[in-house]
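Example record used in the benchmark description.
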Amino acid sequence: MTEQSTTRRRLLGAGCVTAAVAAAGCLGPLGSGGSGDSTDPAERSLRLSIASRGGSLRERYVIDLADARPPDAEEAFRTTLEVSTYTTQYRRPFFSTLDDPTYVRDEGTYYRLGSVVVDEAVETRPVLRLPDGTRIDDDATDDDAIATEALPEGDRRAVEIAHMAARARGDEGGVPWGLVQRGGYVYRSAEAVETSRLLSDDGPDRVVYRETAYTVEITEERFHEPVYRATVEPVATSPERMEAILRAKFVDARIARDALSTEESRILRSARGEGYDEPRPYSEGYRGVLTTLHERAYLDGNVEKDAFSDAARGSGTVLYGGEYYEYRLRFTTSSGP
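Model output (structure tokens):
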């Protein structure tokens, strides 16, 4: 249960905030249409598309330290490199995860930036919600509401994000949950709290955003937040070694041109153009290409049931003839993709 207390205003009889995420037409990793797809498998084709990525993996995955995020990333890097401890609360030091690491180059050495959870912190933070809104016509005014533009920068961001949750009520399309939390916006910046007009005891009860006047609801709620310790690990001292590391991590398949049959080469050339389609049962050449891509789930398994397994990626990076490409597999029908 969420622990909370109202500081100034609470909407009486407020209902639950819901957000429906539209599912119609969404494709899973395989583009199969999901378990609800009633298309006769005999009427479907499997399309392979291949696009050149261009350049090296270093150009895509390695950044300059000055470009690392968030703004204090360089401070975290320097502090950790000097064998000191640098911690952050709630936010990862480099916005880096195990599956999506951050690599930087500094003075000829390549580093992998990351973090580990070392503790838990309990904090009480203000939460802004906009529980109801009234559209303002061109000729109408709301003298009790303050324009968002007149608020401090921290409040403007809070209203913008809380509005994302408010607009989702009753609509399809979902909510950006990475920004919206607990149905609104959580003030975590000490500066934003100190300068806030909405959080003050005599703050406005209504705010206007995009021609809609919203009721302002502020609560104080308890949060249990992870404490992260920054990690900085040297991994390479040459571009070639760094490229090898990135290949090992990100390349899903490797294709040698001289190992392909004439038919397999033709299929790959077509896939690099407008894409290549085949219905089941697949030809020997297409089966060979799928096998080379390590997509055996399309051949040996129940691809509908295996949709979210490691055996059926449906997309990835391939090293083909010394160049990097992105490939994608998806099902199409005679009526269209």
